[in-house]
Write a structure and sequence with these properties.
The structure is a single chain. By secondary structure, the protein is of the alpha+beta class. It is built from eleven helices and nine strands. A nine-stranded mixed sheet has the order 2-1-3-4-9-5-6-7-8.
Length: 274
């Protein structure tokens, strides 16, 4: 991908245009243009189309060619010749059709998770940074969805680096054992939920991987909940090593029991002294 490099090159080639001037021309913010040029974010399909029209450069050249070393007109001519010679021009209509499909899933990349959590208004934060949006035909048009990059092995057999798509729900709609993307003030995690707010004001978060210890979070710290809908991954789910995971679980139980014994011993010692 040469988008970030090409964007800087085309902007400066265009009468040394500033990021602010380009942002105004594309109806974006300067910070969004900066994130594209730094490679911290990728534009949506709609934004790519607008860039292509503005700079009079094809989307393919904008993203896949190093325009600092290639004559765009020559490259475009060669591409057209090749396209018609192979009859691939028959696919042009489908490109225009796809561009009109409503985008119904916005992706929060892992590198943006901290900013997303710390933002006072997540919707405004996402709009300001123009994160990638995708059109997925199996998602309902009447519901709100969001996609998150998930790291780690706590939710095996879900592979590390999977993109999880969640449906927006409220905390009062939690069903025990339901898998959700949980956005708290401390971060974003994918866990099974058990609502204990009526008992002690907390929600228990549990991994599907028994090697990970469940933990509680204050219900008031939960900012957003996204019920697991589906996921996308480059990797095939791996079978868990049950014996190894059971050993981890037993080790964790032994540690918990030892902690309880120490607590009981301290209580007995205090009672004796009194």
């Amino acid at each position: 991908m040469f988008l970030s490099k090409n964007l800087r090159y085309l902007r400066r080639k265009n009468n040394r245009q500033t990021q602010e001037e380009l942002a105004q021309a594309l109806a974006l913010t300067r910070s969004v243009i900066s994130s594209y040029e730094d490679g911290r974010a990728e534009p949506s399909v709609t934004t790519l189309i607008n860039m292509s029209a503005y700079f009079k450069v094809s989307i393919e050249s904008l993203t896949n060619l190093d325009l600092t070393n290639v004559d765009e007109k020559k490259a475009s001519h060669q591409k057209e010749v090749k396209k018609y010679a192979s009859a691939s021009a028959l696919k042009v209509n489908s490109v225009y059709f796809d561009a009109k499909i409503q985008e119904n899933a916005l992706l929060v990349p892992e590198k943006a998770a901290a900013g997303y959590v710390n933002a006072s208004d997540s919707t405004h934060f996402l709009q300001d940074h123009d994160f990638p949006k995708y059109s997925l035909p199996f998602l309902s048009k009447t519901k709100e969805y969001r996609a998150f990059e998930i790291r780690g092995e706590s939710m095996l057999p879900l592979p590390d680096k999977s993109i999880v798509i969640g449906e927006k729900i409220e905390r009062e709609d939690i069903k025990d054992g339901q898998v959700c993307v949980v956005v708290t003030k401390d971060g974003i995690v994918l866990k099974k939920l058990y609502d204990q707010s009526n008992v002690n004001g907390t929600v228990l978060l549990k991994s599907t991987n028994v090697g990970y210890k469940p933990y509680e979070v204050d219900a008031s710290n939960i900012m957003e909940l996204w019920k697991f809908h589906s996921y996308v991954s480059h990797n095939i789910p791996q079978e868990q090593d049950d014996a190894n995971e059971l050993r981890k679980a037993f080790t964790r139980m032994e540690n918990d029991i030892q902690e309880l014994r120490l607590m009981v011993a301290k209580i007995k010692t205090n009672d004796t002294e009194e």
